[in-house]
Amino acid sequence: MAVGCRIITKINRPDPALVERFRDMPVANIDDNMSRIAAVDTAIEPIGKGQLLGTAFTIRVPQGDNLMFHAAMDLAQPGDVIVIDAGGFTDRAIFGELMATYCRSRGIRGIVCDGAIRDRGGLSVMENFPVYARSATPNGPYKNGPGEINVPVVIGGKVVHPGDIIVGDEDGVIIIDPEIAEEIADATLAVEKKEADIMKHIVEEGTYIRPWVDDKLKEIGCVIE
């Protein structure tokens, strides 16, 4: 048995139509409907702009080594998001602009790396290919292995399973279990409609009606002088 060194090539991916339900949905609104605790560690920051949306293709690598990422690039399918558990190690980059460009050419939607990248400047201006990482460093990776592909991994304190739905924007990244995705999408859509109505009142009438504020102040015994 090869402990810590295996590649699983077949994973269950959700219906693309289910994934697309989250198109242009703000991560903050999604997180509001997941008890506000579903986002990855804020240290994993966006490199560049635009929404990240796709299904998780997971990789676990040793600190500062990208052998399994090289293998994964040829196995991931269009619509996947490469999710790399690099153990949070930030002194050696796992990938840079060359590998990201190859991934994009294969229809991969983006990369989330719990570790470091390099070529920050090039990655930051790539069109339609969001990247998230903990840091940037010029130190390049080793290529010795071992590692695993398509096993559960931990990214910024959150467990990610192959086939999970990944959504990211300028605020951060969130992971959604496909089993509850319909429910989350419905709830988020309702929040978006509610917030649009609130925004309309603010802009057009200068009002922001929040009776719960007075109720909470009364509940906690706040003295208003």
Give the structure's gist in a few sentences.
This protein is α/β, with parallel strands linked by helices and 225 residues long. Helices cover 29% and strands 25% of the residues.
What does this structure look like?
Strand 11 and strand 12 form a beta hairpin. The chain has 7 helices and 12 strands. Strands 1, 2, 3, 4, 5, 6, 7, 8, 11 and 12 form a 10-stranded mixed sheet that branches. The protein is 29% helix and 25% strand. The chain has helices at 16-20, 27-32, 67-73, 97-105, 120-124, 181-205, 211-219; strands at 5-7, 45-47, 52-60, 80-85, 93-95, 110-117, 131-136, 147-149, 153-155, 158-160, 165-169, 172-176. It has 225 residues and is of the alpha/beta class. It has 2 domains: 5-177, Ribonuclease E inhibitor RraA/RraA-like (Glucose Oxidase, domain 1); 185-219, no CATH class.
